[in-house]
Amino acid sequence: MPKYSSFQLDNGLKVMVLPDAGNPMAVVNIMYDVGSRDESPSQTGFAHLFEHLMFGGSVNIPSYDEPLQMVGGENNAFTNPDITNYYIQLPADNLETAFWLESDRMLSLAFGQKSLDVQKGVVVEEFKQRYLNQPYGDAMHHLRELAYQYHPYQWPTIGKELSHIEDAELQDVKDFFFRFYRPSNAVLVVAGNVHDEEVRRLAEKWFGPIEAGNPTFRNLPHEPVQSEARRKEVEAAVPMSAIYKAYPMAARMTDEFYSANLLTDILGHGKSSRLVNTLVKEERIFHSLNAYVTGSTDPGLVIIDGKVNKEFSLEQAESRLLEEILRLQQSGFDADEVQKVKNQSETALAGADVELLNKAINLAYFTLLGEPDGFEEEMKKVEKVTKEEIEDTFRRLILPERSNTLLYKAIPQDDDEAED
Length: 420
Description:
A 6-stranded mixed beta sheet has the order 1-2-6-3-5-4, with helices on both faces. It is built from 16 helices and 11 strands. The longest helix has 20 residues, at 113-132. It is an alpha+beta fold.
């Protein structure tokens, strides 16, 4: 990543400038330090709702998309449990249009009842399509509720219940906005064919007058150390049964994150990974199998999940999975396969540092974490992980008493129904 410069406005807005003179485009990326972990247990899904509301018109600009399209720009956004991110890509010559649009959204949304009703409808429909009516769509809902008993990671970004969005009132939405969508709770990254002086001038002009707001100070509940296994079984009309296992792990910026991430690559990332090679390709117990980490800012999860071929029961598949995990814990890994996954991880990191937008998002995220140079350090941290550390992480984390198991049982269907 090229060297950046930075400054902070009087209202607390952190501004990062990432120049790329050879690129005719510019990216204006605003990351807010708010996600679903900041929601009340009785009002979940608000951060994701705002991902939609922010495109419904701001206090002085009724249509967000129209002026952006006129200058050749495009935009999008995403939300996760930890952050909410909005970005614009446009020709660098039209940079000020992006400042105008984003600053007005930060100043205040239009907050009309009609806009709220429309966006609530969109989110409710998304909830139904992606989570309630999609095969296995609610699996992570159940798994999170098992793994997190206290921390707000226990509900997904879309929300815990449909009613929380359906019942959202205009005043609730306003309160959420003015609590979190403030300059002091955001990082602005401007990247591309831009200059420090110009970015500073535009930031002062468009964002400087906005009231600072109060910085976010979290006092989220911590999960106690899990000491006994938790299990849940659900039934659904899905093509095949599935097993989901989640194990608590450390937070994103810890050394354990890197060893756990490499561990899951060895176990279940790609066709040559250990569990896939044995349980999918050789023994054909599982139709597919994956291992990964959630990568959340606060302590996250190692997850192993797989779809079970119809010739095997859930009990048989789970027993064989646990048997293979125990065997691997006892035998350890080869130095060559450890180096292979480290090389793959470093290649992926290098690829993520090519696109201008990815550079801007990564810089914003690590700035929020308090380490603006954090992305540059990622490769060093990956290379530093030893074979012994990965094996130790495996034996410490993947234990029966630390497991959260969701058995997703397929309801028998007629052949005609299954084909439909």
